[in-house]
């Protein structure tokens, strides 16, 4: 958050948009007004915590650690019908409009957030697209792919008795 100057960006956006509230889960920010922070939310409570978000963000610096992360955060936003913005890094690099998102370069967060705050119709379109995409990301939707991967791994391990999964 510091390297991308998102606290400053969000503070400036709050000054421009008096209706803007910021909520963070986990990462605290130095915001004093129109700000909610939860240090922890249990996984089963996460949908209730995010369902009223208008925009979710998934900022990542391009580091080896971040390139190895999963895309679970944006899947959670999408499943909650939340439009989201993400850095074009690691797990998010191949995502975009088809997943209900817009990818944002490190120096473009202020403009991208401001544009989406101002455009309720675009947020709604992205939220619907995100939800549709999230339905394709469930274990049920990918079970055949998982089964093929497991069967190939078993076969490579050299135990023919286990190849019929």
List the helices and strands and how they pair.
Elements: H1 6-16, E1 22-25, E2 35-38, H2 46-50, E3 55-58, H3 64-67, H4 72-79, E4 83-86, E5 101-103, H5 109-118, H6 120-135, H7 143-156
Parallel strand pairs: 1-2, 3-4, 4-5
Helix pairs in contact: 1-5, 4-6
Please tell me about this protein's structure.
- With 165 residues, this protein is α/β, with parallel strands linked by helices.
- Helix content is 41%, strand content 12%.
- The chain is built from 7 helices and 5 strands; from the N terminus they run αββαβααββααα.
- The protein has a 3-stranded parallel beta sheet with strand order 3-4-5, with helices on both faces. The chain has a two-stranded parallel sheet with strand order 1-2.
- The chain starts with 5 loop residues before the first helix and ends in a 9-residue tail after the last helix.
Round the mean pLDDT to the nearest integer and report it.
92
Distance between termini? 44 Å
Give the low-pLDDT segments: none
**Individual helix count:** 7
> What value does the Rg take, in angstroms?
19 Å
Percent helix range: 40-55%
Strand order in space, largest sheet: 3-4-5
Instruction: Tell me the strand percentage band.
Output: 5-15%
Count of beta strands? 5
Structural class: alpha/beta
Taken in chain order, the helices and strands follow as HEEHEHHEEHHH
Question: Which outline best applies?
Answer: elongated
Biggest β-sheet strands, sense, barrel = 3 strands, parallel
């Amino acid at each position: 958050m510091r390297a991308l100057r998102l606290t400053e960006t969000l503070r400036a956006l709050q000054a421009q948009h008096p209706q803007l509230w910021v909520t963070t889960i986990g990462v605290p920010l130095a915001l004093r007004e129109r700000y909610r922070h939860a240090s922890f939310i249990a996984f089963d409570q996460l949908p209730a915590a995010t369902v009223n978000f208008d925009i979710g963000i998934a900022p990542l610096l391009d580091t080896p650690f971040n390139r190895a992360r999963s895309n679970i955060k944006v899947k959670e936003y999408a499943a909650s019908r939340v439009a989201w913005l993400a850095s074009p890094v690691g797990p998010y690099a191949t995502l975009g409009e088809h997943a209900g998102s817009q990818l944002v370069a490190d120096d473009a967060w202020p403009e991208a957030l401001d544009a989406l705050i101002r455009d309720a119709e675009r947020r709604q379109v992205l939220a619907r697209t995100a939800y549709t995409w999230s339905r394709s990301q469930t274990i049920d939707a990918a079970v055949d792919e998982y089964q093929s991967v497991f069967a190939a791994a078993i076969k490579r391990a050299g135990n023919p008795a286990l190849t019929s999964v």
